[in-house]
Write a structure and sequence with these properties.
alpha/beta; 6 helices; globular; binds 5-O-phosphono-beta-D-ribofuranosylamine
Length: about 200
């Protein structure tokens, strides 16, 4: 499966996905990395692995979300991308784009959805006083942080935790959960049904 990874920042999830697709057993290959911001650490990580194309599509250069998304879509089509992984991609995508890539776009969120949607999910969990949080890899739906869940990993919250220490522990879980979800979807073991439910393909 031809995969594009979209980033906005440090790219540690990108790094984990890059490690995953190197495995002979992997059903995926990363053919493209796109960042909406220039000069981020994630691009440096991508440039280290010369196997694929890196592009910056700077959202500040576009008059509208629709135009930005249209450019992303064109680039994805150009490289015959089959699956998009949003790895710390901090842009809300427009309805038409999300609908077009429905069932072919995954996102990672640092909480056990549906709890703690939106930004600062780690801080929300700390403030809610829960003892367990985690991360979720889900198909992207038009409603933010609400698509069908593919993989989750639970992470304990320690009494000594700060937002930073908790975020770090969640990120470690993300680096296992996202590669696992990539393989499930990339291999066809998991598909998204038209009604938005997940289908496990028992035959593989
Ligand atoms: C992660 O915490 C992820 O949950 C959130 O943004 C962060 C991305 O980190 N979407 P990185 O850029 O993959 O290091």
């Amino acid at each position: 499966t031809r995969v594009a990874v979209l980033i906005s920042g440090t790219g540690t999830n990108l790094q984990a996905l890059m490690e995953q697709v190197k495995k002979p057993s992997s059903s995926a290959e990363i053919v493209m990395v796109i960042s909406n911001r220039p000069g981020v650490m994630g691009l440096k990580r991508a440039s280290m692995a010369v196997l694929f194309v890196c592009q910056v599509v700077d959202h500040k250069l576009y008059g509208s979300r629709a135009e930005f998304d249209g450019t992303i879509d064109k680039v994805l089509e150009e490289f015959r991308v089959e699956l998009v992984c949003l790895a710390g991609f901090m842009r809300i995508l427009t309805g038409p784009f999300v609908r077009k890539w429905s069932g072919k776009m995954l996102n990672i969120h640092p909480s056990l959805l549906p709890s703690f949607k939106g930004v600062n999910a780690q801080k929300q969990a700390l403030q809610a006083g829960v003892r367990v949080t985690g991360c979720t890899v889900h198909f992207v739906a038009e409603e933010v942080d609400a698509g069908a869940i593919v993989v989750q990993e639970a992470v304990p919250i320690l009494v000594t935790d700060t937002e930073d220490s908790l975020s770090e522990r969640i990120r470690e879980a993300e680096h296992r959960a996202f590669p696992a979800a990539l393989e499930l979807v990339g291999s066809g073991a998991v598909k998204l049904r038209d009604d938005g439910r997940l289908v496990w393909n028992q035959s593989v």
